[in-house]
Amino acid sequence: MANIKQLDPGASPLHYFGSELRRLRREAGLTLDQLGERLYCTGSLIGQIETADRNPTKDFIERADRALDANGSLLRLWPLVSRSRLPRSHRQVAEVQAAATQIYAYEPQLVHGLLQTEAYARAVLGVLDHDDLDTRLEAWMARQHVLTRDQPPLFWVVLNEAVLHHEVGGPEVMREQLTHLLSYVGTRRVQIQVLPFSTGAMAGLHGEFQLLSYVDQPSIVYGGGCGAQPTANTEEFAEHSLRYDLLRAAALSIEDSARLIARVLEERYDPCPRTDDPLA
């Protein structure tokens, strides 16, 4: 009973999820072991999740939601729970992206996290740390829910051409990743431009950054020389907005960017080259 008294639903997303899981389990009249039988896991594991000592996976949440007839109330907590499983630095990025209505990003080295395939993301995260990679990868990919939610943000990204040539994970991973980028051609809420090598010195030399806008709170800038913390400083935001305008002006058009991505895909990574126009 000590753990039950210590659990504070407001302490973290994991504590809130645990309290909801316990509430629904009790309303169903089930013990930990009885629910464990329905979910094909131990009652001890469920107890650890209820007390926020273990992170639930998406599969666990889906099964618990069905077993407890929660009508999606547990599953709707997954985006919140998944962000809490990220490293602190990545968690902050996920949190500021989650409520944004507009996201404008510049990426000089890697495909933006919201557009990464699972294999590409695995290769990126695996370089940093192999510990608990599957758990971190699942949480990392869950960030992309922001693009498929009801009323998703406008997401506009400028990629340096180097991103297309930087072979992350090998040719097969890059082939899948560039194909994934091309799948956004013609979509309204995701726009991709490429800044070609021929641009030379440009406004993105300070590194990656994002501009995020919201309905009822100040716009913020993240990265780009502002340090590790997002800032709502109006002068910083204005400076980075100007930088971003210059980057977009120097980048290829949306259509020509898609053609460049397709050309790099064909010439560098595709064993069966095609000649069709990605915009056709």
UniProtKB/TrEMBL annotation:
SMART domains: HTH_XRE (SM00530). One of its GO terms (molecular function) is DNA binding. Pfam families: DUF5753 (PF19054), HTH_31 (PF13560). SUPFAM superfamilies: lambda repressor-like DNA-binding domains. InterPro entries: Cro/C1-type_HTH, DUF5753, Lambda_DNA-bd_dom_sf. Residues 21-75 form the HTH cro/C1-type domain. This is XRE family transcriptional regulator.
